[in-house]
Amino acid sequence: MPRPPNILITGTPGTGKSSLAEMIMHSFDGLTHLNVSELIKERKLAHKFNKEWHTWEFDDDKVPIP
Prior knowledge:
Elements: H1 17-27, H2 36-42, E1 46-50, E2 55-58
Antiparallel strand pairs: 1-2
């Protein structure tokens, strides 16, 4: 069975990206919604909170290298 596609949804905070991703996930079997913003918060991969955009700024230097 082929792997499901990777679908990347990007855009300005608060425009409905998460809602769209959930809708797509529920419309097709085998898809998973991976919220990168939540991963950044959970794994402490941000360096500061941007008050203007109401989002955490990702710091790729904090990603552990195996």
